[in-house]
Each structure stands twice: as structure tokens, then as C-alpha cells.
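Example (one chain per record):
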Amino acid sequence: MAYNLLKGKRGIITGALDENSIAWKVALKAHEEGASFVLTNAPIAMRMGEINKLAAQTNSKIIPADATSVEDIEKLYTESMAHLGGKIDFVLHSIGMSVNIRKNVPYTELNYDYYNKGIDVSALSLHKLLAVAHKLDALNEWGSVVALSYIAAQRTYPFYTDMADIKAMLESIARTFGYHYGMQKKVRINTISQSPTRTTAGGGIKGFNEFYDFANLQSPLGNASADDCANYCISLFSDLTRMVTMQNLLHDGGYSSTGVSQEQLNRLGSPS
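Predicted structure:
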């Protein structure tokens, strides 16, 4: 059911790769709620994905941009505002990549060139998106920026290796830039710490399926789906959350507040 929560709003959605990605679901929901927006991803990711299909479904323009390039981001905002007919109301940062994880490099033996690449792609890209928007005055007052994170930014998950550090940096950028942008333009900046989600990116993490099942048993409500996360993003883009900013919002079915579930104990053979 649609509520017209984003009627008349203009946005930029990054990171939609295929139908499994959270950004893809956000785009469908934003379209359903009345928004007009631009889709963007790195050229190499676009060649691997199916973004043209999403653009057709949502009547959206695609503007390729490398989120590590300030020049590309400037072009993204300028062309988006020209195409959409005004300043931007919401931005989704759904960008994450770790070469160390892809290559199964242990945390204690990280390749620092890979590490720096991960930081640039997955965290500094948020700062660049915000800094360029700030410089160009590209976001409307009370606009909303949401970046996707994970609880490994606060707690240790061995399989998440350098991405844990990178997500911690991402959340810090959201808080700090959120202060400055909030004071100056009332722009809201938040991160969502999402449950393990069956996406193309998530599936590339060693041991993901086992941990997905673990988290599902640990969470009173079960793991939050990509569709549920999209709904949460829409609420943060809407005017219903105008006073929410600089927050890392846990969207995990109660996982983060549960020490141990009875289901986990039962699986271990412990008495109830």
C-alpha cells in the first residue's frame, strides 16, 4: 500500500545492482511513494548489473558516477538537478566493497592497498557525496541522506575483517557531517545498521549463510529483509522523521538487544 510519503520529492539512489540489492528495493518503494529520482552506480558495477531494467520500471534516468571521484559526483548532482528540475530531497548511499574480503585475506594480514581502496569506496565516498552537495548547495532544507551500515562497526565479527573498520568510519562521517549540515541547512544524515541480508554483496562474505541463520535465530522478529529495510529508508526520506539525524539506527529484528535466544540454546542442546 502506498501513502504518497515522497510525493514531489527528488532523489539520488546509489548502488542498485540487481533485484536482490537493498538499493533496488528502495528505488521501487520510492517510486511507489511518488518520488522522482536518478539512479547511479560505478560504470563497472553497471556493466555487471541490471540497472537499465530498474530505470524502466521506475521511469528514472541513469547517471553513471564513480563515487570516489569528486569530479564525477559534481557531474552527478549537476545533471540530477537539471533532469529532476530542482534541488535534491534525499540521497541513498548504498556503496560497499572490500577487496580483502573478496580475496579472503585475514584481518591480521590485511593488504593495505586493498584496505585503502575499501575505505575510499565504502566510507570516504559518503564524505565526498556530502561535501560536493554542500559546496553546490544541492540539497533542499530538511533533506535526508541515508547510508547503509552493519553492526560490525561496534562489535567484533571476524568474517567482516576490514569492512568493520570501514563501516565505523562511515558512521562517524554521518554523525560529524550531520552536525554541520544540520546546523547550516537542516539536512538530516543517518545510517541504518541492517540485519544480514541476502544480497549479491552479502553473499560474497565467507560463512555468510551460516551467520544469516545464526542471526535469524538470535533475533526475536527474525532478520529484517531487504524490503523491510527499503520501507525504513522511505520513512527516513519522508517528512515524518524530520527531527531524526546523526543516528545509527538498528534495523535488525531485535538482534542487537538480545544476549542469547532460547532458540540458540535449544540448538546447542541446553535445557529450557
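Caption: DSSP finds ten helices and seven strands in the chain.
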